[in-house]
Write a structure and sequence with these properties.
By secondary structure, the chain is of the alpha/beta class. It has 12 helices and 12 strands. Strands 2-1-3-4-5-6 form a 6-stranded parallel sheet, sandwiched between helices. β8, α7 and β9 form a beta-alpha-beta unit. α1 packs across α12, α6 packs across α10 and α9 crosses α11. The radius of gyration is 21 Å and the shape is globular.
């Protein structure tokens, strides 16, 4: 099929790296690997960070311009077969695809759409209603989390749903040989306000509780909260901390290779692709059992999940893995097996191809 791909939150071509951009790129690659002709049809970001009434007005106006532009390019017989929208939600609805899909009679497919009753009030009410309508009219809604599917089903029980587990390209990590006998903890995360800064803060508090143990930590990441993050770790011995700054994707496998475990609390993580990367590299994980993290880390098998917001619990999990090399080795084997056999690009691409084949049939 010819597929028009659109990501209203962040285009696959966006210059700033993030999990959203990474997943968008992998979905495009997965669709192309199945033989589909995929075009990234618009770069428009519909994101609004404020719930103020009218916050999406500018994006709506820009969407009308895009609709006119794309309609003109599709005049005659050149329209695609399907519109594929990745991650529409209350802050970033798809203001383009539903109109074009009706106008040109395209299949409309969402991936990782979400809807929350507590957000369907105030300034977000209109955008939530827009999401609900799009989901109801979609040919298929592909969900990455059972939580998301439940939320969508609550407002569109007659809509069609399918599950696709979060996935990564495990290829760059398969040859990594982690230093499991060492005592180096690895963290890879952007330094942004909100959940990211909260996660760094809890990690620092947990590390302060295990200063009696031997360990070092390598932190890869950068962002506007760089100074805030460093201040959170100020009470720790600076010789224990290696600040790596932002690393290119090609450099990340080597960062994992130097570690014996991966640690990231993960406040607000929809799932966290870095967890899958670390596991594909053979690192056991310490994270919180919050949001979508349990969907990508198997507690007690590929890592240890702790109570949300509980720094002592997180510290205990770090200490347990640091002090038990046998447990690290067994979790390393299972973590790599899980990531490669269950959450690889190849597995997800085959699943996605089957979903779209059913639409085509």
């Amino acid at each position: 099929m010819r597929i028009a791909f659109y990501a209203p939150l962040k285009s696959p071509n966006h210059p700033v790296p993030s999990g959203d951009r990474q997943m968008a790129r992998m979905l495009v690659a997965a669709l192309r690997s199945a033989g589909h002709d995929v075009e990234i049809v618009s770069e428009l970001r519909s994101f609004a960070g404020s719930p103020a009434f009218g916050a999406h007005d500018e994006a709506r106006q820009a969407a009308e311009v895009e609709i006119a532009r794309i309609s003109g390019s599709w005049s005659g017989a050149s329209a695609p077969d399907l519109w594929f929208c990745y991650h529409p939600y209350y802050k970033a609805p798809d203001f383009i695809g539903p109109t074009l899909s009706r106008r040109f009679r395209l299949h409309y497919v969402t991936a990782e759409a979400s809807w929350s009753r507590r957000r369907a009030v105030g300034g977000w009410r209109d955008s939530q209603a827009f999401i609900a309508q799009a989901v109801q009219n979609a040919t298929l809604n592909i969900c990455f989390r059972e939580k998301d599917q439940a939320g969508l089903w609550s407002i569109a029980p007659e809509a069609k749903f399918a599950m696709l587990d979060p996935f990564i390209d495990t290829g760059p990590f398969r040859s990594v040989v982690p230093e499991l006998t060492g005592r180096r903890i690895v963290t890879v995360a952007m330094m942004r306000p909100g959940d990211k800064l909260d996660s760094y803060r809890l990690l620092a508090r947990a590390l302060e509780r295990i200063v009696h143990l031997q360990w070092t930590i390598s932190i890869a990441g950068d962002g506007p909260c760089r100074d805030d993050v460093r201040s959170e770790f100020a009470r720790l011995d600076p010789l224990r901390i290696e600040w790596l700054g932002e690393k290119a994707s090609a450099e990340i496998p080597e960062v994992y290779a130097r570690g014996c475990l991966y640690a990231w609390p993960g406040f607000g993580e929809a799932y966290g692709l870095a967890y899958l990367e670390a596991q594909a590299a053979g690192l056991p994980v310490v994270a919180q059992a919050t949001d979508g993290v349990p969907n990508v880390v198997r507690n007690g098998k590929t890592g240890l999940l702790t109570a949300a917001g509980d720094a002592p619990d997180f510290a205990d999990a770090l200490a347990r893995l640091l002090e038990d090399p046998r447990l690290r080795r067994s979790m390393s084997v299972e973590a790599r097996r899980f990531a490669i056999e269950e959450r690889s690009f190849e597995v997800a691409a085959a699943r996605l191809a089957a979903m779209l084949q059913a639409i085509g049939d």
